[in-house]
Input
Amino acid sequence: MQDLEFFSRALGLEEPWRVADVEMELEAGRVVIVVECRCGTTWADESGALPVHGYEQRLWRHLDTMQFETFIRARVPRVRYADGHTEMVRVPWAQERSRWSLLFESFALRVLQNARSVSRGCELLRLDWSSAQRIMERGVERGLERRRLEGLRHVGMDEKSFRKGQDYISTLVELDPEAPRVLEVVEGRDTEAAVTLLETLPPEARGSIEAAAIDMSAAYAAALARVLPEAAVVHDRFHVSKLLGEAVDKVRRGENASLLSKGDASLKGTRYLWLYHPGELSEPRFAELEELLELRHLQTARAYYHRIRFMDFWSQDSIEAGQRFFTRWWHETQRSGLAAIKKVAATLRAHLAGLLTYFRHRITNAMSEAFNSTIQSVKASARGFRNFEHYRIRILFFLGRLDLQPR
Output
């Protein structure tokens, strides 16, 4: 009798619900709380009194009782409405279409968010993978329904690999420095995919966006022109740095091959040295860089100079100052005799309007890049994804800042 009263109070049951029995299955290591509904031939709720059409037996996973897995089993009334259709009444301990109690689902969401991996979360919860996936899906569905987008001003779009090969996803990120979040994910990176991505935002949210940070992708620019024609395009500084870094590496590879053919190994093993700003290097690595920079004949050193020099572009205090700086830098690159650097300079000149917009909005895709690192971790922990929708749910679950909890 004490067990029945304990579980009735623990579940917060009120009439017509009550705990009728508690079954201990010691060999199976589980407890089954048997709940019954004493509602008679009618069911009364906010819609009035409805005739009970029948009963359906259901089972829900609940929080463990000590070391025992615990379940709630109940025969739930199915009522008939005036138009003839029937529905199962909602039970007080779980949401509709759920196989878990509210308390268990809430606990599982917290465990899955904080576990080292979803697999580890499943072990702790004693759940199979498909159940964990469904719990995450339900949490994301709730979170997206509750999400507020008032005051959305700056967004970023970026791409991320999905499967092996040329499969990509596009992510839309709110670039709020206080609370950045992934807003949505779609499959693909072409114009139509980017349009679909932007159109996931409700019209009122689209109207409040002032600027979007993107790389120099024509597909993303075209999508912004179609969906957010009033938003300014800001070309991302990290993408620019990547282009210049790739140009320096191209010069290095060509020059290294040439030097090695002459027996000169000056550039051998220096690939990663040229990727960093001098201020980011350790003392031994900085000394190594200084030694290479003193070799005035190195084309790689000259390419590196133009890359580092361009970093000062972003610290200019106005569009006009940025324009003047770029003009000087561009003329220097044209006299460099370095084809790879001149090619990047030409690309930047063609996109100069989007570069100069930075001085008005000063946004970057740094947050998107940081999220990409987390997305890669999610992907790695799952050993890759074959199903895009599962990938999308994981990204929004961990990076969407959504209110996931059932209520």
